[in-house]
Structure prediction request, 227 residues.
Amino acid sequence: AQSVAQPEDQVNVAEGNPLTVKCTYSVSGNPYLFWYVQYPNRGLQFLLKYITGDNLVKGSYGFEAEFNKSQTSFHLKKPSALVSDSALYFCAVRDGPTGGFKTIFGAGTRLFVKA
Amino acid sequence: EAQVTQNPRYLITVTGKKLTVTCSQNMNHEYMSWYRQDPGLGLRQIYYSMNVEVTDKGDVPEGYKVSRKEKRNFPLILESPSPNQTSLYFCASSLRDAPGAFFGQGTRLTVV
Prediction:
């Protein structure tokens, strides 16, 4: 069965510092992995995805994520955090090309960036 | 503008009164899905559809129905709502071969 874990409910960083939001996953086949961001009173916005190829994927707003197959992780990173990055972040997994649109989301990690 | 549109945005209803939340997308996406968001639980998939007349259960389908008669529309039906269905609901759509999803703005449902 598919599962996603976001081990931190909250991450606090100072503006200008690097940030990491952690995600580990479990899936039977080859995973499709995603990060989404949710701002207050808004829907989710797609940030980036890993389907195949280069393990380091780059996405919107300067975010990137690294796929690590041996550790079954897909951590979200940004070299220099902005106050405007403060939001709720969700990691999600689909079971590759055969999994259709069945998607499992993590519980979310709230990121606070302090000025 | 490419978008997923949900209606209504807010709804308060009483236990047992049937309701429908509509979802429409203008991007010709094959895949559509409904999620509910509850604090501490993230998003949980209710139903999804991979094309017209093709639907399948997600992780929490009990108490919900869906239909996909047209590619652009994917309504969520609560035949007899109960208070435990009070939640924030999101509709999403995606191309089959470009699987980053577009989400609607959400529907906040309260069942009293």
